[in-house]
Specification:
The chain is an alpha+beta fold. The protein contains three helices and five strands. Helix 1 packs antiparallel against helix 3.
């Protein structure tokens, strides 16, 4: 199963993490793993192109020799209000796509994607 953590601070999405293997099909043929990866790559590309963020500063991929997805996008606290608003729209769109995958494919007894919402304590 892929575990997705959406981390918020107040109403703002600060990070989205994904880890695991869906187990829907063999590695390399798993449409759920591919879909999750595609959403992350699309969000990262949009944050670079639309918001001007440097991908190396906020997007991490690692699989350490496994077939598991291990992705992280952490929203940089950079730019003006318009840039930050656009970044939130991109992150919310990624979150909605992930929720849709979980909703559509977790209908059987097997759970392929788990969405966990967490909040960073406000200080």
């Amino acid at each position: 199963m892929i575990s997705v953590i959406v981390n918020r601070e107040g109403n703002l999405i600060r990070a989205i993490y994904a880890n695991g293997h869906a187990g829907y099909d063999d590695p390399g043929r798993d449409i759920i793993c591919s879909s999750v990866s595609t959403l992350f790559y699309t969000a990262a590309n949009a944050l670079e192109d639309i918001c001007g963020y440097d991908g190396e500063s906020f997007f991490r991929i690692s699989n350490e020799g496994t077939e598991d997805v291990n992705l992280r996008i952490t929203v940089p606290d950079l730019g003006g209000d318009e840039t930050k608003d656009r970044a939130q729209v991109i992150m919310r769109t990624c979150e909605l796509g992930l929720i849709g995958i979980a909703r559509d494919y977790n209908k059987t007894k097997k759970k392929y994607v788990e969405i966990i919402h967490s909040r960073t304590p406000e200080v």
